Predict the structure.
Amino acid sequence: MDDVWNNFDLVVRAFGMTVGLFLAAGIASLAVGLPLAAMRVGPVAVMRRAAATYVTLVRNTPLLMVFIFVVIALPRIDITFKSIESFQEDAFGQVFISAYFFRATLALSLYTSTFVCEAVRSGINSVPLGQAEAARAVGLTFGGTMTQVVLPQALRATVPPLTSVLIALLKNTSVAAAFGIIEAAARMKYFNNRTTEDVQVFLLFALVYVLLVEVVSAASLVLERRWKAAR
Amino acid sequence: MNTSNILFDAPGPKAVVRHRVYTVLTILALVGFVLAVLLRLDRNGQLAYALWEPFVTPEYVQAIWGGLLDTLKMAFSAIIGALVFGLVFGVGKMSEHRWLRWPSWVVVEFFRAVPVLLMMIFLYFAYGLGKDAVLSSYWCVVIALTVYNGAVLAEVFRAGVLAVPRGQAEAAYAVGMRKAQVMNLVLLPQAVKIMLPSIISQCVVALKDTALGYYISSPGLTFVGKQIYGEFQNQVQVAIVITAIYVVVNLILSAIATWVQKRIVGEKKALAPTPFGITDADTGATQGGGRI
Amino acid sequence: MRFTRTRATLVCASLLLTLAACGDAGSDDEGSDVSADTDAASELEDGTRMKEIADDGKIVIGVKYDQPGLGFKGATDDVPSGFDVEIAKILVSKLGIDPESDNVEWKETISDNREPFLKSGEVDLVLASYSITDERRAEVGQAGPYFLTGQQVLVKKDSGISSVDDLKGKEVCSVTGSTSIDNAEAEGMKPRGFDTYSECRDQVLDGAIDAMTTDGSILLGYAALNPDDLEVVGEPFSEERIGVGYSPESPEMCQWITDTLQESMDNGDWAKAFEATLGKSGAETPEPPQMDPCKS
């Protein structure tokens, strides 16, 4: 355990990487998942079907395979995302903007966006029918119905399932360990390799994960409460 | 019922035209995407028969089949273990005794919050290496999946029991049953019926997570895949084939879940199974939580 | 079978404290059954781990399987080959065991599991491009070094990268659990970790990353396999001293390993081993390194 305390900066940086991945992939998943959900409930049959196919395919694929596609298979056909590196100087600095970080974020977002889509869809389904009917009755288009009536209400109902999705994403960032990123799980492996006190090291890393999960849950509770009050 | 019909009117003539334009555009985009992918594969020589040949060569087909069996075995063992784990701690969490409720709560919360992969790495390094190793990487995967899925199922059990109408328990107490009898004879049998689809969809989660064994070299589909692309340098092809196998198996499992739901649960309002736990279809509130 | 052997070792080790000697009584009658080839083996002292291995006639050696020129085993090979393997064979033959026979079990070790394997007795010796460090010496035994190398970078040909400075702030691939990652970070690179070097090599070949970094000897092996696509560039920016790992429970092995290696360096076997393996890529045979003295 001394080894861990003496190199505690490594632990902190590893969890920094975990949180960085979580935030980047979380935002990207929402950005992709919301339009995907709109496509799934929209009036254009082809879009509905395309979105549904994508969601079904990706949801049934292990995240690890998504990573293999993005990190190992895509470079084979010359899709490396290396150009992302040219942004590093000006934008976010050294640590996060890198091809591997981008690939990990992409893999996590491709996967998580399908779950975001389903969570949002269940939220939309939870809005009473009368709401949409009333919106249409006063002459709102599909876009208007969605953005002004259904989605604001759906968002509230979406907070709990979306929280589950985000918590899952937080834990799923650990898969990046197998694909180059030295985040918390890879760092734990590093320490486990050097110590005989595996249990203590595991408990330390596990408890930080528990803490992070609690933070996400707490944030969602605050959000839920605030939006409830606004109702 | 299909909500999507309520969100928009039957399209008028203008909207029909607009939708047609969208349809055409979407189809064009999709076809373009597929073409681009194929072109790209071809340009990089990825459509060459030699790279696909392993998947029609008997030895390799057999190796993949073996990997699939290992994967299924791991997932199945984990689910059986998870059912036991979930039952024990799910019932524990509902206990009236604080000394039982609290530890159960801690155990369930802990294992739900810890990434399965972290658990696997820990098990492998603590108990899976060396001559006095007690666990093979296979069992590291099974145990990690057992405790994680068990913790999720504990919540499923609890939610299932709570979903049994209150009157059932009250009536049972009224005819003089003891606590254990109420749980075992009245609540659990009804709860299991409600929970069955959730349990089966948890199988999908377990099956998908067996892929994580890749990181600790456990047997299974991903491991066989790694061996094959190590030999033939056909990463793209392996990724496509192995993924296809996972998707097909998962779709079969999901179909079983749907069938079971229709058949056994019938018209009764069921807890909608989602990978996040159980979502009450009406409120969207997740009671189970869990992971993707 | 192997299980009983560790037990015996443990029993032996504990007996050693109270009794003066602990050998396989009866089997070692004063050189009467010594054959000409196994002179060295019969000279081993009773009660040492070397003696036990020699008497047992079987040894397990941890080597790398994915480092061409050092320790490499192709899909169709029966046994691994490379410089590490050759050095291991020198050691094995001194135990009276035929290095080409089935009595030598080669076991693949990756960077992450070398210490656990040694500590648990899963392997008797590790020769897996195993750098000597103080941290590792606190956990397991390391004798040598039998080879000096330094961390360099492997890049695609015509990449425009000619030194480590060109890689500052860039991503480089290495193996988790190796010292290379820490060194790369200290040089201002962004290390990315995979499980094996071959995965790193593929990432470099596919253009997913600019470079991989680790000991020059390892990189030379990969460059020799892909001379048209890959090259090793830059001056070494660290000194890696490759040693032999042994169980922390048998400190007596250190002196024996050091002596055996010294002998091979003096009589030319060491140079021969180099020429037959790493030297094949055209590298000049270096001077044998100065080895560390063993503690006590």
About this structure: Chain B has two domains: 3-43, 49-279. Strands of chain B lie at 272-274, 277-279. Residues 58-93 of chain B form the longest helix (36 residues). Chain B has ten helices and two strands.
